[in-house]
Amino acid sequence: MTLPRLDFLIGAASAATATVTLPFANGVRPLVAYPQKRSLIVLTPRPPQLETPFGIFDEGLLTPNDAFFVRWHLAGIPTSVDGATHRIKIHGSVSRPLSLSIEDLRSQFERVEIVAVNECSGNSRGLFSPRVPGGQWDNGAMGNARWAGARLLDVLGKAGLKSSAVQIRFRGLEQPLLDATPPFVKALSIADLDANMLIAYEMNGEPLPLLNGYPVRLVVPGWYATYWMKMLGEIEAIDTIDDNYWMKTAYRIPDTPGNTVTPTQTGFSTIPINKLTVRSFITNLTSGQTIAPGTQTIRGIAFDSGTGIAQVEFSSDGGSTWRKASLGENLGNFSFRGWESSFTARSGTSYVLACRATSNDGKTQTTTPVWNPGGYLRNVIETYQVGVS
Amino acid sequence: MSNPVLRTAALASALIILGAASSTVTVTLPPDNVQFKPGPGADLVTANCATCHSAAYIYTQPPLNSKQWTAEVLKMQKAYGAPIAQSDVSAIVDYLLTQNGRP
User: Fold this and answer.
1) ipTM reported for the complex surpasses 0.90
2) Does domain A88-269 have CATH number 3.90.420.10?
């Protein structure tokens, strides 16, 4: 994996704008500090899509709120939200429709905490070959936070799901600008709900940043971020499989082995994107870097859909031989898991470093990248070319 | 404040009014400084596309061919409800090809 090169461009107005160059065509991005955020990599300013500079993942297992990636779909984002008057409406096929304030969530339901990775469905899309249209992210459209809130199942239990209900549909305060644009709604099948899923009012012990969904967002551990509805305002139990654009047409993956197809393949059926693939990264160096000779500590992170990381292996010879890395602190199966290994770097030699994670359900990473037209699920073994001074 | 970077930093401030249990959060998002570059069709693209999204949506894509840009324009028209006249589709695609195209 090649990491962004930090450089400065002198603009026509003689203003210095910091940029990074991501490792693919049209990869120059400005670095801008949005409200409640440090300087992040701007994919698009309207609606805002901000990527976390990858080096931040080397600073700790929890991604700071002000560094956490941002992805909105529609430009109608409320820029002022009152957490005291906000209500979550629970309706549809329920016995007791509810309208809950954040205070209701805190006082009427058990407070639950979980550390979980939130990864954009399109994370790493820019690295697909051949390239595919869509949001052109490098590997930083992900983050790991300690979320706190009420269990979705507890709230649904209070409302009393009717036996006819098949799916739960979620909508936030994000609005389309045109009447003809489909509102951003997502649905989960009732059979897929579990006690890890939260309506979260805290992120790393603080209120959520507005751009990450203040005052509440859905937390769906192990599932791609498209389901983690921000500024959650509406929960609707429905009696049919949701057929809105964002479920029926967008965010679909091939229903093929490994969810992969060839770039010319057509005629395959698709399913909604769902659980995270297993991934691992080196965080304390970047590809193309020159390192010092001698014993070098290599560290990184790994995660999967929530079965937990069974092992991470490290290679200093491009994947010909592997050795087990030592795993770090365990913050739970849905969290980033730190890992560490080392190798002896000989002066004047170059190395291809690689890491490979295996999850507790036996899934692992391979050298062949998945390919699909949406640019989803990338989890190829990452490689890092380094020289030694 | 004459320095544009400092000005952006000031605009990108968040106002948080503390309440008892929750609070109002108000933010001012930085302006969208990415513009469609001049050229034949730029007016059409600005009129039809910029209502809903930044020009960065075009310039950050990999270079796309005519078939791919056409698919994107038709997706915006049919799925997202962009009010693109059928007679303007080819001029919009031509503009996108001049901006970020490939054979």
Assistant:
1) yes
2) yes
A48/B28 Cβ within 8 A: no
- Quote the pLDDT of residue A16: 59
pLDDT beyond 80 at B42: yes
Residue A246 C-alpha, separation from nearest chain B C-alpha, in angstroms: 10
The mean pLDDT of A229-250, rounded to a whole number, is: 98
The residue of chain B nearest to residue A179, with distances taken between CA atoms, is: B81
- The residues pairing with A237 across neighbouring beta strands, listed in sequence order, are A92, A168
Please report where in the chains the tokens 């507005």 appear, as a residue. Answer: A210
Surface of A (24-63) touching B: CB under 8 A: 24-26, 29, 32-37, 42-48
CATH level 3 topology of A279-388: Immunoglobulin-like (2.60.40)
Q: Looking at domain B42-100, which of 3.30.230.10, 3.40.50.300, 1.10.760.10, 1.10.10.60 is its CATH number?
A: 1.10.760.10
In order, the DSSP letters of A2-14 are PPPEEEEEE-TTS
Rounded distance between C-alpha atoms, residue A152 and residue A198, angstroms = 5
Which of A25, A79, A210 comes nearest B63 by C-beta?
Answer: A25
In whole angstroms, give the CA distance from residue B56 to residue A51.
14
Q: Which chain A positions have a beta carbon within 8 Å of B51's beta carbon?
A: 177-178
Yes or no, beta carbons of A79 and B4 under 8 Å apart:
no
Q: Considering the entire predicted model, what is its pTM?
A: 0.94
Instruction: Give the pLDDT confidence of A274-287 residue by residue, as tens digits.
Output: 999 999 999 999 99
